[in-house]
Amino acid sequence: MGTVVLVLLSSLLAIPLGLASGIYLAHYATGSWKKWFSLAVELLAGIPSIFMGLFGFALILFLRKTLAPQANTCLLLSAGCLALLVLPYLILMTQTALEALPHELRLAGLSLGFTSWQNIVRVLLPAAGRGILSGVILAVGRAAEDTAVILLTGVVANSGLPSGILSKYEALPFHIFFLASEARSDVELAQGFGAALILLMLTAALFVGAYYLKSTFGKAWNPKNLLI
Amino acid sequence: MLVESLHVGFAGREVLHNLSAEFYRGQLAVILGRSGSGKTTFLRAFNRLNECFPRSETRGSLKLKLRGEWRDIYQNEMPLPELRHRVGMVFQTPHLLPGSIADNLALPVKLVLGLPRRDIPSRVEWALEEAHLWEEVKDRLEAPAHTLSGGQQQRLCLARLLALDPEILLLDEPTASLDFRASLKVEELLLTLKERYTIIAVSHSLSQARRLADEALILRDGSIVQRFSREDLQAPDTLQVLLEEMF
């Protein structure tokens, strides 16, 4: 349950921001500002996940010494750090998918009198849906499996269901890591294998669902079909 | 329509040089010229679509009489979306929107005109009839638009324009990607439309210009070098001039 809440929360934080940034880079940013923004995204993509965890941990230490002495590592902090980790995938996939659309498609809506925003939302985003969906799936999958970030930002070995976004929580990847390294009996080790199997199935279900969505979406919105 | 000292360039390279011309309501003007002479750029100047290309620059004045009022479109006297729906454009190849035949008409009508949902089907039917397409597609309005033939797609694009109630039609070689029969159908349609709309068309075909045009302009290296009236176009010695200019 902890994993599901964590993935949902980090997706809620990362997906809107990632899509908006991708649209901005593909359609609005120009010149050196675009160059610097793209460089920042690429740098963010290159940061190892343990650094993201350390960033979250340092942030909490900073908050405790300054604005919020009661602040502690929690589900929200993990979700925020995971969102930062997967944000570059979302931005780059959205930007690439939008930039790969034929220029003619962009002109079609604009020449009819659509506003720039109407053109993006009603014509270009649906047409680029396949690529964007790939980015979302990749991001969600990455968020579900990462251990290094949550290790330093709020996950614990045994907390039951999370009571709120500011509480500690359990997550499958850490549970597997914990049991693999600290198992004291065959039963615990078997539990670890079971948890790994569940994580594997969860991720597989996610990818199968994504593949299905992609193929149905792709048939409806294949850009090759949009222009003769 | 009044074009005065129009200059258009991209990335510092001027494509149209100091163009001046007038176009009259209810007439079909054809712009002729070799490839690269600036015909499409000139056409796109009328709905400011050149601005969708990187580093475009336009100087000069282009005044259009829209809804009875003169507007200089480069003095920002009109919002861009409104200008583009009043001055509709059909491209060389059909630029379809995603979705079905009906979606291609309904979406612009809904977004641009803001028609209530109940009025959209009648508007779609009217526009398809105007484009002489209704009989061919009335039983498959929900089929994907890309399943239509090239000629039908081009007429769908025209229907989409007409549904938005434009005043000026810009046609960029609308029959370039069509076979002879499909071209003839589009030409017949244009002949009926020119009575109600001001039409400016780019064409590569001399015979098409002679069949359709009330006036023809020859563009060479971004400048207008000749103008011909309908009578001039029918004269045998004009053909020689046209052939020399275009080939």
Explain this structure.
- The complex is a heterodimer of chains A (228) and B (247).
- Chain A has 228 residues and is mostly helical.
- Chain A has one domain (2-222): MetI-like (MetI-like fold), CATH 1.10.3720.10.
- Chain A has helices spanning 2-28, 31-45, 49-65, 75-99, 103-112, 116-127, 129-145, 148-151, 172-182, 186-221.
- In chain A, helix 1 packs parallel to helix 4, helix 4 runs antiparallel to helix 7 (129-145) and helix 9 packs antiparallel against helix 10 (186-221).
- Chain A starts with a helix and ends in a 7-residue tail after the last helix.
- Chain B has a single domain (2-246), classed as P-loop containing nucleotide triphosphate hydrolases (Rossmann fold, 3-Layer(aba) Sandwich).
- In chain B, helix 3 (101-113) packs parallel to helix 6 (150-163) and helix 6 packs parallel to helix 7 (180-193).
- Chains A and B meet through helix 5 and helix 6 of A and helix 2, helix 3 and helix 6 of B.
What order do the SSEs of chain B take from the amino end to the carboxyl end, as H and E? EEEHEEHEHHHHEHEHEEHH
Q: What gap, in angstroms, lies between the N and C termini of chain B?
A: 29 Å
Residue-averaged pLDDT of chain B = 88
How helical, in percent, are the residues of chain A? Answer: over 70%
Oligomer: heterodimer
Assigned CATH architecture of chain B: 3-Layer(aba) Sandwich
Instruction: Walk across the major sheet of chain B and give the strand order.
Output: 6-7-8-3-9-10
By DSSP, the count of extended strands of chain A is 0
Q: What does the largest sheet of chain A look like?
A: none
Pair of chains with the largest interface and how many residues each contributes: A-B, 23 and 30 residues
Helical segment count of chain B: 10
Strand content of chain B: 25-35%
- Structural category of chain A is mainly alpha
Low-pLDDT segments of chain B: none
Supply Rg of chain B.
Answer: 18 Å
Question: Rg of chain A from C-alpha positions?
Answer: 20 Å
Number of domains of chain A: 1
